Amino acid sequence: MSSLSFEMWLQSRLTAHGFACGEIDGKIGPKTLHALRGFQTARGLPITSQADKATVAALKAAASRVPVEVSGFIPDRDSDLPDDRRKTIWPRQKDVLSFYGAVGTGQTRVEVPWGMRLAWDLDVPVRTITLHSKVAASAERALHKIHGLYSDREIKDLGLDLFGGSLNVRRMRGGSRYSMHSWGIAIDFDPERNRLSWKRPRARLSLDDAIPFWRAWEAEGWVSLGRTANFDWMHVQAARL
Asked: Could you tell me how far CA 190 lies from the centroid of its own chain?
């Protein structure tokens, strides 16, 4: 289960509802209070600037499609988590062979804490995914944190319940180098709504309610090609560019 403090939970829920607080750090400052008042106003709640019982109940509900602009504190998508705040524990793409070994080796199974289905066959449930043993614990932490950030309905709305693949020994499209999937160090989510060439805002995971999802991975040093290069928004990998 997630080990988020109540303050971090509050910030993550406000962000998921479209009222971004800046960095989700558990520090209740002016941005969080502004977001809290904005949320209370939008929901017709008493404007108390407090996470009272009614506000917490409303935050627990699935996020609506309230325009994110009303919060006034939506971070820049490419700079809301500075590079010097990200962990850099994974090798660069050019060094993955020496770090992870031969493609397809060193694999283990990681349990997904919410219900998933194969994106290309929705009748097939996915309960575990295959990843390299060196990234398994990190992926588990990120997945459990994400599970604490979103309701089941929000997970489905974001497409996080649609598994697009992890281990898959193959060459990169149009090239001779192996894909990061070949080492089991990459995961794809909802490929239909996050196609390879789609950019923001067309790709579903490029929208603001996905920011907490990406931050959970970035806190573990994983890299989003969407957030770094604005393509392949389905993809996250344990390798730096």
From this structure: 12
Q: Alpha-carbon distance 71 to 69, whole Å?
A: 5
Domain boundary among 75, 94, 119: 75
| Rounded mean pLDDT, 148-173 | 90
What the block records as the tokens of 229 is: 């290069």
Indicate the pLDDT class of residue 62, thresholds 50, 70 and 90.
low
Q: Closest by alpha carbon to 165, among 117, 93, 217, 231?
A: 117
Number of domains making up the chain = 2
Q: Judge if 217 and 159 occupy the same domain.
A: yes
- The three-class DSSP label of residue 75 is coil
Q: Containing domain of residue 208, as a range? A: 85-237
What is the side-by-side order of every strand in the sheet holding 121-132? 121-132, 107-118, 162-165, 186-189, 235-237, 223-224
Mean pLDDT of all residues in 155-161:
96
pLDDT per residue as tens digits for the range 166-211: 988 887 776 678 899 999 999 999 999 999 999 999 999 999 999 9
8-state DSSP, 92: B
- In a domain, residue 1? The reply is no
